[in-house]
Amino acid sequence: MTGLPPPAFPIQTARLLLRPFAAGDLDALHELRSRPDVTRYLYWEPSSRDEVSRELDRRVRRGTLGREGDTLHLAMVLRDGGALIGDVSMKWVSRDHELGEVGFVLHPDYQGRGFAGEGATAMLRLGFEHFGFHRIIGRCDGRNDASARLMRRLGMRHEAHFRENERFKGEWGDELVFAMLASEWEAR
Asked: H/E/C letters for each residue in the chain?
């Protein structure tokens, strides 16, 4: 695998458009990333507007996965009304192992309605069918039951439960790892 070509945007699902972030997304992204209930199980604390602006600049510049270590973040936008309700991501973890990692963050006002699953399914499709990954993983904090349930619903296999494997926001935390192979994606 070398630099990976950009997908055709927007990616459409039944209720969502997944598209690259744009400069005009600052207010919606700040609303999402500044909430303690959103960042509770994520690696960052609630973010200031300036911090979100810098993060948005990084996202706007990345339209594909150019090299190992890159992450492509896509805005999850409602097809009906255009509200930005979250983001989904795909990270190129390893060139040699053709390994990707899927991620998702959804605004609490839209949780429980299948939007995260719809967006994450589209990202799995992108990872396997467009980028050609052999294996895609998903990770979450051991206390994040909602994310673990979602990855199971996506058909990802629960492969690991690492006990107190990293210091997370000042305390030792567990990490759950889920995975799916390209052959499992094809057989769904």
From this structure: CCCCCCCCCCEECCCEEEEECCHHHHHHHHHHHCCHHHHCCCCCCCCCHHHHHHHHHHHHHCCCCCCCCCEEEEEEEECCCCCEEEEEEEEEEECCCCEEEEEEEECHHHCCCCHHHHHHHHHHHHHHHHCCCCEEEEEEECCCHHHHHHHHHCCCEEEEEEEEEEEECCEEEEEEEEEEEHHHHHHC
The pLDDT tens digits of the residues spanning 24-48 come to: 999 999 999 999 999 999 988 999 9
Residue at token pair 């390994």: 99
135-141: strand order across its sheet: 11-12, 16-20, 71-78, 84-94, 99-106, 135-141, 171-181, 157-168
pLDDT bracket for residue 4 (50, 70, 90): low
Which residue type occupies 77? V
The full set of domains in the chain, from first to last, is 11-187 (3.40.630.30)
For residue 49, how many C-alpha atoms fall within 13 Å in the half-sphere facing its CB? 3
Establish how many alpha carbons lie within 13 A of residue 72's alpha carbon, considering only the half-sphere containing its beta carbon.
26
- The rounded Cα 135 to chain-centroid distance in angstroms is 15
Half-sphere exposure of 187 (CA within 13 A, CB side): 7
